[in-house]
UniProtKB/TrEMBL annotation:
It comes from the Bacteria. PANTHER family: (7AS)-7A-METHYL-1,5-DIOXO-2,3,5,6,7,7A-HEXAHYDRO-1H-INDENE-CARBOXYL-COA HYDROLASE (PTHR11941:SF169), ENOYL-COA HYDRATASE-RELATED (PTHR11941). It comes from Nocardioides dokdonensis FR1436. The keyword RNA-binding does not apply. The lineage of its organism: Bacteria, Bacillati, Actinomycetota, Actinomycetes, Propionibacteriales. SUPFAM superfamilies: ClpP/crotonase. GO terms for biological process: fatty acid beta-oxidation. Belongs to the enoyl-CoA hydratase/isomerase family. The gene is echA8_1. This is Putative enoyl-CoA hydratase echA8. Its EC number is 4.2.1.17. GO terms for molecular function: enoyl-CoA hydratase activity.
Length: 254
């Protein structure tokens, strides 16, 4: 697994997630994403961040198999805290974050993208919060930043996905481009931001966060409380076992 961060000469920092096969991040992976965004905040040479991924899709959420092969609640607590740290780091990054999304963007991926400042997507990109299928809750806070309220509830309760092209009408996705043009499109809008005086842009980012009607950090933390309740009740563990193909002893189903 690798979370890489590269600062270009034009002030654009490119943060790339790569964790085959589907970019479902481990606990450490979420903390690594947070660290990369925190580094961008501290570095005054960074004017804007492009958050992207390599592989089959942008992000498939948490690594459920890691969770089901770890005894006790350490992996669950680690994933909760790691996701919280990563989402918070994107939202509170001192410079704008442009998300370049391809393929699947699910669960925790929506948490990252929903807290970004601008979204560019490829034609094959789609978004969803399938948490209810795994006995968890979360990222409704962030999906609500992408679609209207009733659409968010429908997607949440049904675990359906929505295409990036359909999000353009809601104004949450800036543009949809062919897959091989995604990086170019993301770098183009990032370049417009990077060309501005970073002192002004950093002040603007802080100001816009300050007038947000919802505290996304507290809202997401509230959601996580229900996930913990479902885990303590044994519901989430049962559903994750089915998804990961393991029994209670952590052995793979034949």
């Amino acid at each position: 697994m690798a979370i890489t961060s590269e600062l270009r000469a034009d002030g654009i920092r490119v943060v790339t997630m790569q964790h085959p096969p589907v970019n479902a991040l481990t606990v450490q992976g979420w903390y690594d994403v947070a660290a990369a965004l925190d580094e961008a905040s501290r570095d005054m040479d960074t004017h804007v961040v492009v958050l992207r991924a390599e592989g089959r899709g942008f992000n498939a959420g948490v690594d459920i198999k890691e969770m089901q092969h770890t005894t006790g609640f350490d992996a669950l607590i680690g994933a909760n805290k790691g996701c919280y740290a990563a989402f918070k780091a994107v939202y509170e990054c001192a410079v704008p974050v442009v998300a370049a999304v391809h393929g699947h963007c699910l669960g925790g991926g929506v948490g990252l993208v929903g807290n970004a400042d601008c979204i560019v997507a490829s034609e094959d990109a789609y978004f969803g919060v399938p948490e209810v299928n795994q006995g968890a809750l979360g990222a409704a806070t962030h999906m609500a930043r992408l679609v209207p309220q009733h659409m968010m509830r429908t997607l949440y309760f049904t675990a359906r996905t929505i295409k990036a092209a359909d999000l353009v009408q809601f104004g949450s996705v800036l543009e949809v481009v062919p897959r091989d043009e995604l990086d170019e499109a993301a770098l183009a809008v990032a370049g417009e931001i990077a060309a501005k005086d970073t002192r002004v842009i950093r002040a603007a980012k802080e100001a816009l966060n300050g007038i947000d009607p919802i505290d996304v950090n507290k809202s997401y933390r509230f959601e996580q409380g229900f996930t913990m309740e479902l885990n303590l009740a044994g519901v989430a563990d049962e559903l994750r076992d089915g998804f990961a193909g393991t029994d209670k002893a952590g052995k793979a189903h034949q």
